Each structure stands twice: as structure tokens, then as C-alpha cells.
Amino acid sequence: MIARLRRALVAQVSAPLAVSTEWNQYYFDEESAAYNEIEVRLGEAFAVVVVRGGLPSEEFVVRVWHRRADEVWLVDSVEQAVFVVPREGVIRVFEIGETLRSPRLPDVHIAVATLFDVMN
Question: Which CATH architecture has domain 2-115?
């Protein structure tokens, strides 16, 4: 599902934004570290990071990333949903049958069913 999401993002995200080619682990300081499966950057700044998991279990990870990224997407393979968690604003949950969208990436629109390889 992460590979499918990465391909969809690469196909739809355009410069000056850039999509990472692999997962990354960051050590921000002695007490703060975080990983992501995918990152979308605007230069050196993180626009969106994608992490496996859901809410509330990954709430701490989201808080760590919100210090550096405008938005965190949690891809939950169990619930087959994507949680879009902005630094400010309302959390949105996209499920099978819906199209994943984000104000942070206005040109991106991804059918959630395709991420989880579900025929809809």
C-alpha cells in the first residue's frame, strides 16, 4: 500500500514539491526522533509525511512530526483508512469508497480503494 501511495503521489505532485523515494528515519535531537514511509517536501521543509498506523495509537508520532511538518497522513492497513492530520484544523478520515484529498496538496486525489488494492 505504501508503494502504491508513493506512485500516486509521484504522479500527481509537481515542483516545487518533491516526493521521497524511500522511507527515512530522522534524529532531530537527543530526545526526539521520528520515521516516515513517505515525505513530501517543499525545499528543506516537510509539507506532508506519511506514517503507517492509525489514531489513537500513533498520536505521539503525529505530535513529534507536527513540530516539523504541516500535515501527517497515517495509513492504517487494519482499518483500510487514511487519517489526514493537519497541524491545525480538523482531522479527516478517508475510507474505501472515498477519494483522499488534502488542502496541503490540492492537486492530489487518490482513491483509497486503490491503496489497499480493493475493487470498489
Answer: Alpha-Beta Complex (3.90)
